[in-house]
Fold this sequence. Notes:
Helix content: 40-55%
Shape: extended
Distance between the termini: 34 Å
Amino acid sequence: MAARAGAERPLAELGLRRRVSVVVPGRTAVMLLARDTALIALGLADWPPATVRALGLRAFPIPLRLPPMELGMARHPRNDGDPAHHWFRERLAAAVLGLPGP
């Protein structure tokens, strides 16, 4: 639900509301759905431009001031002691946060 709540307030301030028709699990499904339907897709700005072009899509900035998106990372406790898993989590977090690696 949190992922769907980000645009409601800015739209309401303009007297608008959105109608969510479909929720999909990932960016590939979003891009294919946008390509094959008349729906508009909201997504992260880092969609690969070559992929967007190859699918015949056009990307535009969202013309609203949206609140920041929260990202989280989950794992099963059985991986807490796994050095490789720990190494991967550190690098993944650094990449997402734009930090230099350890």
